[in-house]
């Protein structure tokens, strides 16, 4: 997903939308083994859901081989489940098997045409695969859907989508619309700050950093933006404070590694 808070276009099924933003590349203990009651006939729907959740967990652990095994079992058990198809799309996309990913996302969108969360996820796939106009249109439809309880998420997604294709004017408009719904939304504040910094307005970017930190927990992305913006305006003392926080609070982040290596722009 790019170096900004790109979370958002890779959304998993509704229960794990927040997790999906960026599936961690950490390596940890595999999910616990769940014993099977061999005296009871397995329910395909329950089995598919269990395998789908295991696939999601294996993706989080960056164990893509096991994620594939689990999601393909789920596909065998419940091929008409839109959440299973959506998760399959994400697994195949992570594996760079884009033909299979496209097939799965199309199936998810068709099977879950009344589910705005599924449509939001499919819109993200469209944006990530060079179809920004179609992705933007679908995100806007999702944001307008009364069944979708977080329209600001779809609006930020639309902003990220059009920004990736160079349309910073519409991107800013979408981020501001998201903030009218949720004024302290961290993703929208961060994206606006990034836009300001990239067009040379470091002072405005700093205002958004300060607004973010006043109402939200720190993240490596917002501290990284603060560090670069303070350097740009010439306040090396404040920049050093942001750099210290990145390395102290998020020592394993890519931002901390960039500061240590001197790869700073």
- Which oligomeric form is depicted? single chain
Shape: globular
Q: Which structural class matches the secondary elements?
A: mainly alpha
Q: In CATH, what is the homologous superfamily of the domain at 183-265?
A: Tetratricopeptide repeat domain
Distance between the termini: 19 Å
Return residue spans where pLDDT drops below 50 for at least 5 consecutive residues.
1-30
Structural description of this entry:
This protein has helices at 17-20, 44-60, 64-77, 82-94, 98-111, 116-128, 132-144, 151-164, 168-181, 186-198, 202-215, 220-233, 236-249, 254-261. The chain is mainly α and 265 residues long. The chain has a domain at 183-265: Serine Threonine Protein Phosphatase 5, Tetratricopeptide repeat. Helix 5 (98-111) runs antiparallel to helix 6, helix 8 (151-164) runs antiparallel to helix 9 and helix 10 packs parallel to helix 12 (220-233). The longest helix is centred in the N-terminal third of the chain and has 17 residues, at 44-60. The radius of gyration is 20 Å and the shape is globular.
């Amino acid at each position: 997903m790019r170096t900004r808070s790109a979370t958002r276009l890779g959304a998993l099924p509704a229960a794990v939308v927040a997790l999906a933003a960026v599936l961690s590349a950490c390596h940890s203990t595999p999910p616990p083994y769940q014993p099977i009651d061999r005296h009871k006939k397995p329910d395909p729907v329950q089995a598919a859901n269990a395998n789908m959740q295991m696939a999601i967990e294996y993706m989080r652990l960056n164990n893509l081989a096991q994620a594939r095994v689990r999601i393909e079992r789920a596909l065998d058990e419940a091929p008409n489940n839109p959440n299973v198809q959506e998760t399959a799309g994400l697994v195949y996309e992570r594996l760079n098997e884009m033909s299979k990913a496209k097939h799965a996302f199309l199936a998810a969108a068709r099977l879950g045409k009344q589910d705005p969360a599924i449509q939001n996820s499919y819109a993200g796939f469209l944006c990530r695969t060079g179809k920004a106009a179609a992705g933007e249109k679908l995100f806007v439809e999702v944001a307008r859907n009364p069944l979708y309880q977080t329209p600001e998420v779809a609006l930020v997604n639309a902003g990220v989508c059009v920004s990736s294709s160079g349309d910073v004017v519409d991107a800013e408009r979408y981020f501001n619309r998201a903030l009218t719904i949720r004024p302290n939304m961290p993703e929208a504040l961060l994206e606006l700050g990034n836009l300001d910094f990239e067009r040379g307005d470091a002072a405005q970017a700093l205002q958004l950093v300060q607004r973010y930190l006043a109402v939200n927990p720190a993240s490596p992305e917002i501290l990284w933006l603060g560090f670069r913006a303070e350097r740009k305006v010439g306040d090396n003392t404040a920049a050093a404070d942001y750099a210290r926080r990145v390395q102290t609070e998020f020592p394993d982040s890519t931002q901390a590694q960039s500061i240590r290596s001197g790869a700073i722009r």
